[in-house]
Each structure stands twice: as C-alpha cells, then as structure tokens.
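Subject: Protein record for review, amino acid sequence with backbone structure tokens
Why sent: The fold of this protein is of interest and is recorded here as tokens.
Notation: Tokens come from a learned vocabulary of local backbone shapes, not from coordinates.
Attached in line: The record itself begins immediately under this heading.
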Amino acid sequence: MIRLLRRAALLLLPFTAASALAQPAPQSGEPYELVRALQAVQDGIANGDTAAHSSHIALIRQIGEKFLAADPAVWSNPQNSQAVVIYLLSGGAPQVVRKLPRDRMNVDERLFNGALAYVEGRQDDARELLKDVKPRTIPSGLVPGIRAE
C-alpha cells in the first residue's frame, strides 16, 4: 500500500498544486515562488488552457536558469529545497538539478535522490532510494493529498 502511495505521489505530483491562475514566472523571488507559478501553469494545462500549454516548456527553462543563478544560500530554506524536487517531478531538467549545490539542500536526501533517479529513468535506483521513505514524513507541500493526518 505504501509503495502504491509513493508511486501515485510521484506520478500525480506534476498535477497537484497551487490554485493560482496560470502566469509567467515571477521576475524575482524565491525558488518556491517560481515553482508555484509552474504549478499554476500546469493547473491551467489540466483545465484545457492552450496558452498555458504553449508557455510550459519556456517556463521550465526560465525557472532552471533562475535556479542556476540563485545565491547558494537560498537552498538552505526547506521550501526552496522542496521546490527543487517539485520542479524536477514537474518536468524540470535533471541536468539543472545536478548543478545545484546539493550540500546546501534542506530536504530528505533519499527523496531528493530518489526523485532524480526516477526522472532519469533509473527505476531500480529510485525504488531502492524511496523504499524507506514514509509517506507521512514527506512534507505536505511536496505531496498534496497523499499525506494523511
């Protein structure tokens, strides 16, 4: 059951999110704010917004550039570190994530590395890394609707 929840969380994560309207990435702000904009665009796509669909790839690219240009200190904020995982599972480039200062990330290393393995197609590695992650320990911002109270 937990394995099924984990798999569902990873598959559904790109479609969960903020209830804001689809909009371009904020010009400045924290990485988690950029990812909220991405989630809003993905919500728009799910609702049939063709404009959101056409801007999706450009937004992912723009967020990746902003992540790479960010001050390394921002990644110590758990919201920003969690945003990296959401970005990755929402179609973000693993090549971008691999260039970020992982020693500054304030997120469960198994979850971070498991998500990276998953999007890179390394299913066995992802399964091994995620097998001991308890769904209730995953921050609610990462997996809305999965974490039971």
Summary: The first helix runs from residue 2 to 12. The chain has one domain: 2-19+28-137. Residues 2-19+28-137 form one domain. The chain has a mean pLDDT of 81.
